[in-house]
């Protein structure tokens, strides 16, 4: 299995050298590690590689050495992902690993980055443990996390009358963490969790889980999963006629999943996201460039936009130090300087590695109001950073003093 993974990494390797860069000194190497062929391939996959390359190109020839982007498929298998990360850090001189959907793999990579004194930036991973007890001085959590997604949706829907919840949850660290955080928000708002059903990654038939949720009498059926699992669950919920008195809440649903769900089947669905391609002129300009390079013409989602934003900030930190050699020093520089880019705007990286920026409430458009194409959502609210993210003192990160 490792041989297959390593071979795939080599096949997917690409090199990005801005035109004026001369091959002098050690190149900076960035590895995009994600799901290229499974349930998260649309959410990250080649799109995250495109975003990383665009960031390198937009940063330009400011380091004086080549910046190389390589990529590999972790197949959603912890042993495969860990083997690739270890090889990259120990043998292939990779300075930064970025993206890494699948929280179990991300937690393993965070530990390796600490041990090897390299850098890890999670954009696709969700678990809030990356800035909690498992935080490291070598890792940053960029785009979203389960605390923010779960608490935001739990609070919003409970305030709208959704007080009785039943969860359909992906049976691994990410799904359990997402359910836990949403449940905390629901109970804090005076609601009740009636139960949950756990499903394996890559489930195609959600009928038994949906029937359990429907029979529970819950006001809200919370989907604590992502990618193709969420798409399949939403489509089947619509086919079963679940709706009306019961609301289906997709805690993680982004733009690239919407063609598979369809606008008619997702009426009334609200999601929380750090980025939406049609929010402003900067997001639209980036989406136009990204879509022109994507093999299927997809617009970017929040996690792919996060890869772009994260790589830009990482390169600024390397530029300030004039070296990528000391991963701990690079992350310290990333925390010391404010973040700012066209997609996420001004922000910062907190002591626990949490990247701070606003989140946006997106609501599906009525079918009659959509222009077609990728016009699925309207931005209906903004959650400021001080409300969006877990308070620094509550995470249990050992890097936080006092």
TrEMBL record:
<dbReference type="InterPro" id="IPR028081">
    <property type="entry name" value="Leu-bd"/>
</dbReference>
<keyword id="KW-0029">Amino-acid transport</keyword>
<feature type="signal peptide">
    <location>
        <begin position="1"/>
        <end position="23"/>
    </location>
</feature>
<dbReference type="GO" id="GO:0006865">
    <property type="term" value="P:amino acid transport"/>
</dbReference>
<feature type="domain" description="Leucine-binding protein">
    <location>
        <begin position="27"/>
        <end position="365"/>
    </location>
</feature>
<keyword id="KW-0813">Transport</keyword>
<protein>
    <submittedName>
        <fullName>ABC transporter substrate-binding protein</fullName>
    </submittedName>
</protein>
<dbReference type="InterPro" id="IPR051010">
    <property type="entry name" value="BCAA_transport"/>
</dbReference>
<comment type="similarity">
    <text>Belongs to the leucine-binding protein family.</text>
</comment>
<dbReference type="InterPro" id="IPR028082">
    <property type="entry name" value="Peripla_BP_I"/>
</dbReference>
<keyword id="KW-0732">Signal</keyword>
<dbReference type="Pfam" id="PF13458">
    <property type="entry name" value="Peripla_BP_6"/>
</dbReference>
């Amino acid at each position: 299995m490792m041989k297959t993974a390593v071979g795939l990494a080599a096949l997917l390797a690409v090199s990005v050298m801005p035109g004026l860069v001369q091959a002098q000194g050690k190149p900076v190497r960035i590895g995009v590690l994600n799901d290229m062929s499974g349930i998260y391939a649309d959410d990250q996959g080649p799109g995250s590689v495109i975003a990383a390359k665009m960031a390198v190109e937009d940063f330009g020839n400011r380091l004086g050495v080549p910046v190389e982007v390589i990529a590999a498929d972790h197949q959603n298998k912890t042993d495969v992902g860990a083997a690739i990360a270890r090889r990259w850090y120990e043998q292939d001189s990779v300075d930064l690993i970025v993206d890494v959907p699948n929280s179990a793999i991300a937690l393993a990579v965070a530990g390796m980055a600490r041990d090897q004194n390299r850098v890890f930036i999670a954009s696709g991973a969700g678990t809030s443990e990356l800035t909690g007890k498992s935080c490291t001085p070598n890792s940053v959590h960029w785009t979203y996390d389960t605390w923010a997604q779960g608490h935001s949706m739990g609070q919003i829907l409970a305030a709208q009358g959704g007080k009785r919840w039943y969860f359909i949850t992906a049976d691994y660290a990410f799904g359990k963490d997402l359910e836990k955080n949403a449940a905390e928000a629901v109970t804090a708002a005076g609601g009740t969790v009636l139960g949950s059903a756990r499903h394996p990654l890559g489930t195609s038939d959600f009928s038994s889980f949906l029937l359990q949720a429907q029979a529970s009498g819950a006001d809200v059926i919370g989907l604590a999963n992502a990618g193709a699992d969420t798409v399949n669950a939403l489509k089947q919920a619509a086919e079963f006629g679940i709706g009306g008195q019961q609301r289906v809440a997709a805690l993680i649903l982004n733009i690239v999943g919407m063609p598979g769900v369809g606008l008619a089947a997702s009426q009334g669905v609200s999601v929380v996201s750090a980025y939406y391609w049609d929010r402003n002129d900067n997001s639209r300009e980036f989406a136009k460039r990204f879509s022109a390079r994507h093999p299927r013409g997809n617009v970017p989602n929040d996690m792919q936009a996060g890869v772009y934003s994260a790589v830009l900030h990482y390169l600024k930190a390397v530029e300030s130090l004039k070296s990528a050699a000391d991963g701990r020093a690079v992350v310290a520089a990333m925390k010391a300087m404010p973040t700012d880019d066209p997609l996420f705007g001004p922000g910062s990286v907190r002591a626990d590695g949490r990247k701070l920026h606003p989140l946006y409430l997106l609501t599906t458009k009525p079918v009659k109001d959509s222009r077609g194409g990728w016009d699925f959502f309207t931005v209906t609210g903004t959650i400021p950073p001080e409300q969006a993210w877990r308070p620094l003192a509550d995470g249990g990160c050992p890097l936080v003093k006092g």
